[in-house]
């Protein structure tokens, strides 16, 4: 266990004497104090019996004797160090009994004097003192080590756990342990360092380890893990419900005591005290319900987050879903043959494009059940069977869906655990209400019950529609999240091509579809609510109709209003039913989605347990007659592979897209295996991916990758990978932060850092996927020589290294064997001896590589585009309250006219509500004798009511209802008896108008809710669209310093909050403000003295709330900020999952997500602890306020009617003040999300350019001129290019060369207008006669094509990726595809080799091209090789035929034969364009007629190829 008692600190000796074990546990001050008070109570009781045997005082003093002696005996025998539960229970029961005796039994205090004092001391004071001591005893053994636990009332710190682990029962009951944090938050903004760690019971390391061993489905596991808390929270909530029901009964008795012939003030005070006790009990139970409910929620959500993360680490690396006929369930049973799902390398055969709607789950329309079944089983299947059917129709989860599971579905399910008690209390209230109504109206209530049941039957069918709509909406949300995530990750590339507007349109299309489904769902839910509301109002109409017409009984006030009070309670619960059912249905959909994800197949070679410890096995990789396919696909990409690798260097070569990367993936176990044998040691493998995967941390941390820092080995690796000189150029050396995915490094530097990580690791096996593709020839040769030049190299000796590369010429001398991946996914193994003995074989392999390389006359030391000291800026947090401007922005986004409509509908509802209760009172009055006096107040008064009773007397008619109004009147025009016949004569008009007023309220309430739906839709659409547009046109520097996860957090989580109940929160605050103000007016009109008291009480509420609000706002903002790393870490993991699994780093990443979840959840936990602090004090203040007003009314000489009036108004005042503060606080918290989204609306925007160029600009012959250009990435940073001046003749083929990181990419980006020359230098960049700093950026980027080293591809088809804006006809696209990828569309080039078993026997037969315009492309092009992605990027350039084309290492991952062909193709297709090529390979710049050489940000040569320096 985590907490143990140190053996050296236990000072106890146990021994046996005469057969009895004597415990020598030490006495503590707490046990001595309790022992003294209990013994004193017993002694005083015995003495009282002897002194006053025949007096009532003896009854008081004799009661505590036996309980006190029992308590003392327990203390003596056990000597507890912690709170003894038995003694606490005895003393609480004793104190309550004594209070009851003192209160109820007259004469207990005798005639006063010393006996009375004696009785008070012995009967109350001493038991109370015992209870006080017990409440302050520690609940945790003080001998346990508590150094890492924050002490109560000490300054909070993030280095220690929450004081909850060490507090006393009193501190927990009163939430007083939060006082230090509340004090700090009141004085200043809270920071992460001010907030404690999570308490032991909430820490996710412990929770995850326990939860992962719980068996069953996800829901069953959650119930098993949190069932005890659910029972406690539900029990406490039931007690709260019972406490609520007792208050009207006690109030009725209180008023009865005051309205007798002789007012009984003593009895009234007793009932007032009982009401106070009920309220105090409810306040304390509220703390229980909130704390245990939140613990259910927090633990359930944390368990699901860590569970989903662990599953992501284990599941097969599926990519996009497929609509093929194979079911996922088959894959669960047989993990080598899953549903046909395209995966990570090359394209599928014959796969066409799919619209977004086709990716959505199809909803079954078949709700029929064959065969005789019980009605409840039919009902269950009718509602839930579509969800089960859809479970098998979706493909594996995409990245967007996984993020949605993490962000949305886990929340939906966990939230229901918080609200679980309402599943019991709401039905309980409904049943109790119906039973009590039956007792009042008798059989006449049956008609109302039938109406209620009819409404429920109709709602069953509507609920099924809600479920279907919600399933579709979730799928659309997945699509929207996928598109938004892809957009945010690819925003630079999109803007380079000026494609961002097209992508925005797609995202907004998904957003519109999502909002429309949300509106549809809300409309159905509102229809359910309207039906429930209608049935709730028709219930009394039907009941009263039957009572008056059928039973022929008069509807008197003493019948109508008690029944109506229950009807209103019934209405209140029925209003909760639609939301309850909707949330349950949403949770059901979310649960099914999570369950489905958890059932997806895991990676095949995962160990059952941790890696075994023992001597390492023989270092060897053997594959024999095995075929492989990507997970979920039956199409084989490698066939009948057989080879064996032993320690030494094995080189893998082959044409672009032939399957080289797939071979490494097969070794890593990421592919599905068909037949044959594969033997790979289950141990860490150093893997260097073709596209370097780096994390947003320092260079050193990326290389260490959570391993121990060995300084000597570390610098040896840095030297071998040629990184030392690069590091020396950085201010912080290797501790420099490199930004997200290494954005602060050049492509070559990223590749070398990734290589260094693999070499530094202690892995015996290294799989290196073309790490030298982006390096210049000298650097690549140096690295290979450093690593493999000596057989005794400490970094590579004895290691099994498989090295994929196209540069076979420089690595073959070091190789022990070569694996040549050839046509149809075959692998040909060539030993070194064969290479040496067969020169033709060697020449053929070398011919695939560059026979010559570009030689650059540059200094030997490398330089780089220097990054800033820290790329990622801290996320901004607003300070203080949410500004009024934020509220106004939201109101404006929702549309002014709709807010006016909302206020109008609300006013109409309230007017209808007033008329409803006034009409009912008039109806009841018609049955009352005319001798009844009118109200003493001359004016018509309206005020709120609490659940109470109907009382008639000479002063006042008190009409009770739940949350309603009463009306007192004089005889005037409002007397309906002047217009309607007496109900004794004809009751039909009364029933008609009662029904009409009920319908008016239903219509008004429904209009109110429909208007809210419109406001939420318009505000959500408006804010999301504006935020996305601002993000899409922000400065490029913003993308450098802002993590993707942070942006996604604001565009998903915060937008989800905006789509929620924010508009409802605004309305509630307005409503309770009016209610509070009207209560003040009513009180002031009745008794001005109460106006003073009310204002004083309001001031107390405000003071408490003012203490709470700053702290809660700080915590809420910290919570939203701490959610960003959770999203970022998850996205980072998804991108680098293969690397993480290769290094066996899953435990490290699981621990990191646990730490991130702890950091996020601690803010949420402490925030809700602050809410408990506020709630308890508000409830306590409300109870004491009401009690004080009640006592003042009782002893103020007022009549019973006036007392009832005051108590009704006072209760409403207290409720309104309480609810106003609470709702305002919740609204402030909700609007933090609005605030964070609106912050995006203030992003600094890129200057769009004011100069509109001619339509023909740039012409194909326009020169490109750099005139004294100095470029830097941000003000305050060192310049990357300094004083650069040269002119490129139009139509030239330009080679831009230089060592890795010399500023070549910066020069290229400046031509896209992403960087502008320093204003102070007077420099400029011009194409033709147009200055790029002033030209319209859209026109510029539409007419310049930039082909990056790592081109970004998007999910869809090749057609979508080649021509996203649909600017070219189909023939043009097909021709470019054939010319660029046609050479690789046959089996010899396809990375997947998708052919059936019959095709395997027909290898010589010609096959149709596999790459078509309809071929599917996964997000990021993950189902293409790096070389194929570069070919697609080049295809874009050829299709656009821009006057200026810039290629940045665009052929680095393409084999030499293909590269030569591409160069010939580019010369032919772009012969009139100015082509600027950045490359290290000679083939890429072989035909250049102009040359620019860079070094350290300066031009050292610029001119015709082969000429002398001109820069």
Task: Write up what this structure looks like.
With 1511 residues, this protein is of the alpha/beta class. It contains 44 helices and 28 strands. The strands form eight sheets. Strands 8-9-10-5-11-12 form a six-stranded mixed beta sheet, sandwiched between helices. Strand 27 (1490-1495) and strand 28 form a beta hairpin. Helix 36 (1146-1194) runs antiparallel to helix 37. The protein is elongated and about 120 Å long.
Approximately how much helix is present in the residues? 40-55%
The oligomerization state is: single chain
Contiguous runs where pLDDT drops below 50 for at least 5 residues: 1-23, 320-393, 847-872, 928-971, 1385-1408
Distance between the termini: 71 Å
**DSSP strand (E) fraction?**
5-15%
Envelope shape: elongated
Quick check: average pLDDT?
A: 77
Number of strands: 28
């Amino acid at each position: 266990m985590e907490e143990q008692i140190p053996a050296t600190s236990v000072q106890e000796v146990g021994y046996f004497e005469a057969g009895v074990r004597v415990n020598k546990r030490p006495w503590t001050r707490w046990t001595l104090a309790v022992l003294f008070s209990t013994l004193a109570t017993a002694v005083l009781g015995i003495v009282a019996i002897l002194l006053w045997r025949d007096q009532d005082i003896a009854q008081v003093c004799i009661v505590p004797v036996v309980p006190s002696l029992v308590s003392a005996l327990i203390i003596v025998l056990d000597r507890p160090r912690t709170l003894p539960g038995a003694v606490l229970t005895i003393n609480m029961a004793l104190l309550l009994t004594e209070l009851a005796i003192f209160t109820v039994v007259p004469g207990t205090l005798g005639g006063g004097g010393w006996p009375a004092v004696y009785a008070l001391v012995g009967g109350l004071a001493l038991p109370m003192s015992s209870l006080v001591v017990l409440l302050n005893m520690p609940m945790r053994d003080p001998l346990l080590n508590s150094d890492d636990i924050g002490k109560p009332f000490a300054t909070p710190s993030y280095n220690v756990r929450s004081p909850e682990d060490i507090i006393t029962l009193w501190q927990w009951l009163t939430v007083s342990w939060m006082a230090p944090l509340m004090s700090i938050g009141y004085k200043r903004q809270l920071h992460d360092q001010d907030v404690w760690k999570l308490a032991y019971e909430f820490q996710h390391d412990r929770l995850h380890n326990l939860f992962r061993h719980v068996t069953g489905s996800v829901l069953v596991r959650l119930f098993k893990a949190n069932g005890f808390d659910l029972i406690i929270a539900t029990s406490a909530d039931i007690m709260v419900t019972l406490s609520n029901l007792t208050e009207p009964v006690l109030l009725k008795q209180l008023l009865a005591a005051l309205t007798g012939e002789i007012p009984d003030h003593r009895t009234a005070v007793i009932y007032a005290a009982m009401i106070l006790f009920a309220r105090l009990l409810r306040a304390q139970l509220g703390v229980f319900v909130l704390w245990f409910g939140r613990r259910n929620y927090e633990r359930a959500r944390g368990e699901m987050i860590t569970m989903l993360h662990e599953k992501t680490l284990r599941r097969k690396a599926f990519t996009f879903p497929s609509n093929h006929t194979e079911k996922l369930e088959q894959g669960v049973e047989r993990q080598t043959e899953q549903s046909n799902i395209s995966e990570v390398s090359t394209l599928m055969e014959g796969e066409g494009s799919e619209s977004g709607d086709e990716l959505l789950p199809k909803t079954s329309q078949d709700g029929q059940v064959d065969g005789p079944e019980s009605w409840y089983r039919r009902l269950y299947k009718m509602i839930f069977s579509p969800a089960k059917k859809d479970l098998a129709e979706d493909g594996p989860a995409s990245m967007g869906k996984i993020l949605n599971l993490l962000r949305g579905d886990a929340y939906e399910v966990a939230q229901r655990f918080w609200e679980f008690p309402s599943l019991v209390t709401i039905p309980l209230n409904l049943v109790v209400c119906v039973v009590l109504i039956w007792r009042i109206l008798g059989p006449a209530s049956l008609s109302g019950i039938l109406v209620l049941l009819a409404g429920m039957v109709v709602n069953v069918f509507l609920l099924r529609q809600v479920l279907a709509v919600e399933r579709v909406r979730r799928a659309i949300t997945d699509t929207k999240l996928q598109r938004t995530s892809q957009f945010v990750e690819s925003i630079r590339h999109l803007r380079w091509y000026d494609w961002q507007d097209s992508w925005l349109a797609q995202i907004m299309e998904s957003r519109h579809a999502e909002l429309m489904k949300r509106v549809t769902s809300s409309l159905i839910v509102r229809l359910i609510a309207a039906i429930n509301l209608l049935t709730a109002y028709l219930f009394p109409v039907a009941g009263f109709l039957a009572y008056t017409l059928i039973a022929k009984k008069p509807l008197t006030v003493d019948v109508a209003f008690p029944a109506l009070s229950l009807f209103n309670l019934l209405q209140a619960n029925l209003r909760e039913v639609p939301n309850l059912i909707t949330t349950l249905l949403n949770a059901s959909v979310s649960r099914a989605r999570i369950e489905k994800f958890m059932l997806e197949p895991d990676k095949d070679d995962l160990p059952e347990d941790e890696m075994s410890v023992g001597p390492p096995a023989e270092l060897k990789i053997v594959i024999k007659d095995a075929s492989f396919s990507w997970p979920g696909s039956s199409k084989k990409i490698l066939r009948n592979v057989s080879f064996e690798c032993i320690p030494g260097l094995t080189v893998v070569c082959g044409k672009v897209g032939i399957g080289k990367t797939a071979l490494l993936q097969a070794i890593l176990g990421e592919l599905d295996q068909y037949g044959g044998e594969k033997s790979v040691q289950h141990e860490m493998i150093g893997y260097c991916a073709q596209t370097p995967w780096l994390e947003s941390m320092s260079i050193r941390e990326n290389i260490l990758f959570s391993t121990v820092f060995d300084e000597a080995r570390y610098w040896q690796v840095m030297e071998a990978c040629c990184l030392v000189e690069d590091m020396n150029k950085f201010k912080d050396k290797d501790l420099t932060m490199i930004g997200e995915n290494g954005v602060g490094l050049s492509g070559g530097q990223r590749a070398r850092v990734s290589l260094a990580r693999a070499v530094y690791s202690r892995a015996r096996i290294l799989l290196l996927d073309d790490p030298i593709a982006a390096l210049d020839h000298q650097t690549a040769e140096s690295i290979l020589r450093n690593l493999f030049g000596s057989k005794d190299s400490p970094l590579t000796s004895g290691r099994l290294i498989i090295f994929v590369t196209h540069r076979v010429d420089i690595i073959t001398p070091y190789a022990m064997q070569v694996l040549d991946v050839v046509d149809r996914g075959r692998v040909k193994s060539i030993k070194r001896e064969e290479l040496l003995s067969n020169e033709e074989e060697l020449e053929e392999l070398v011919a695939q590589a560059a026979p010559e390389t570009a030689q650059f006359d540059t200094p030997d030391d490398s330089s780089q585009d220097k990054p800033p000291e820290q790329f990622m800026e801290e996320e901004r947090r607003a300070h203080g309250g949410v500004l009024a401007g934020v509220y106004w922005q939201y109101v404006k986004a929702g549309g002014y006219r709709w807010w006016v409509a909302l206020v109008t509908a609300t006013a109409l509802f309230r007017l209808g509500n007033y008329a409803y209760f006034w009409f009912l009172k008039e109806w009841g009055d018609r049955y009352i004798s005319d001798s009844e006096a009118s109200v003493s107040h001359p004016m018509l008064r309206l005020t709120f009511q609490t659940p109470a009773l109907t009382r008639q007397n000479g002063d006042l008619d008190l009409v009770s209802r739940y949350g309603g109004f009463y009306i007192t009147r004089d005889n005037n025009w409002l007397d309906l008896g002047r217009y309607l016949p007496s109900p004794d004569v004809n009751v039909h008009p009364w029933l008609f108008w009662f029904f009409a007023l009920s319908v008016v309220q239903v219509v008004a309430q429904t209009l109110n809710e429909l208007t809210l739906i419109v406001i939420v839709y318009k505000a959500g659409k408006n804010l999301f669209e504006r935020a996305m547009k601002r993000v899409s046109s922000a400065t490029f520097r913003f993308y450098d310093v802002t993590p993707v996860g942070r942006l996604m957090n604001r565009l998903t989580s915060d937008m989800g909050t905006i789509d929620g109940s924010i508009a409802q929160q605004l309305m509630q605050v307005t409503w309770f403000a009016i209610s509070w103000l009207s209560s003040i007016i009513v009180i002031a009109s009745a008794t001005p003295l109460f106006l003073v008291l009310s204002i004083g009480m309001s001031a107390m509420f405000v003071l408490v709330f003012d203490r709470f609000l700053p702290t809660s706002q700080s915590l809420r903002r910290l919570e939203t900020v701490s959610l960003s790393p959770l999203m970022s870490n998850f996205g980072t993991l998804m991108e680098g999952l293969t690397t993480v699994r290769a290094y066996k780093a899953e435990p490290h990443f699981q621990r990191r997500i646990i730490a991130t979840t702890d950091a996020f959840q601690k803010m949420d936990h402490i925030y809700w602890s602050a809410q408990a602090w506020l709630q308890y004090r508000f409830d306590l203040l409300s109870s004491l306020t009401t009690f004080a007003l009640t006592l003042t009314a009782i002893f103020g000489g007022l009549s019973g009617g006036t007392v009832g009036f005051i108590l009704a108004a006072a209760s409403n005042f207290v409720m309104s003040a309480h609810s106003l503060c609470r709702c305002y606080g919740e609204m402030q918290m909700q609007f933090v999300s609005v605030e964070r989204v609106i912050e995006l609306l203030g992003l600094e925007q890129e200057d769009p350019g004011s100069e509109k160029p001619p339509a023909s600009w740039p012409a194909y012959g326009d020169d490109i001129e750099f005139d004294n250009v100095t470029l830097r990435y941000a003000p305050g940073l060192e310049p990357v290019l300094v004083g650069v001046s040269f002119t490129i003749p139009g139509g030239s083929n330009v080679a831009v060369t230089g060592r890795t990181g010399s500023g070549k990419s910066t020069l290229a980006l400046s031509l896209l207008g992403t960087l502008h020359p320093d204003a102070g230098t007077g420099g400029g960049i011009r194409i033709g006669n147009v200055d790029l700093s002033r030209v319209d950026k859209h026109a510029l980027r539409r007419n310049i094509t930039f082909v990056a080293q790592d081109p970004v591809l998007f999910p869809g088809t090749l057609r979508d990726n080649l021509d996203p804006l649909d600017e070219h006809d189909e023939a043009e696209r097909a021709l470019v595809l054939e010319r660029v990828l046609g050479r690789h569309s046959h089996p010899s080039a396809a990375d997947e080799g998708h052919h059936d078993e019959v095709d395997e026997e027909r290898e010589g037969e010609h096959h149709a091209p596999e790459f078509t315009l309809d071929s599917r492309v996964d997000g990021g092009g993950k189902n293409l090789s790096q070389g194929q992605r570069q070919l697609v990027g080049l295809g874009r350039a050829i299709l656009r035929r821009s006057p200026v084309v810039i290629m940045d290492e665009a052929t680095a991952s393409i084999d030499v034969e293909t590269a030569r062909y591409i160069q010939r193709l580019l010369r032919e297709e772009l012969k009139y364009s100015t082509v600027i090529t950045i490359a290290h390979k000679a083939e890429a710049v072989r035909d250049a007629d102009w040359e620019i050489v860079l070094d350290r940000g300066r031009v050292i040569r610029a001119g015709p190829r082969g000429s002398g320096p001109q820069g």
